[in-house]
Input
Amino acid sequence: MTKRQPHRALRDAFGQFATGVAVVTARNGQGGFVGMTVNSFSSVSLDPPLVLWSLGLESPSRVFFESASYYAINVLAAEQQELSQRFATPHVDKFNGISWAEGLGGAPLLPGCAAWFECRSTHHYAGGDHVILLAEVERFRAEPKPPLIFHGGRYRSLSEG
Output
């Protein structure tokens, strides 16, 4: 691959890496909430427990996540595709009509997920057209549910083989 290849081709090549799907949520500093679907979530370290995720510099939610002291990473279960789509689109109030529980720092925890990570934001790093957010996991929980998977531009499910 060269730098001259179109971005679509590079995006398609990146799409060959199967990922889980998560919704990152936080208080927005104005008394409301912010949330967005991501597939850039990754574990970094067990000791201390660190995770990272990234979001585009042009994201309207960027300022809220960069200023949040805490946020929650809600790892979606296989049956939560609709929730993924809700938080991936620019709704005015993505939380309207859905239940949630309050996590650390007031970050919303979404019901029915495969896992939850309540994180204290520690660092932000420039990463091209994205910002990389690093956080320490202060509390977590997991349920024995199959995860929602994204591969090749489509939602997928795991098959046991």
Observations:
- The chain has one domain: 21-150.
- The chain has a mean pLDDT of 91.
- The CA atoms of residues 52 and 134 lie 4 Å apart.
- DSSP finds three helices and twelve strands in the chain.
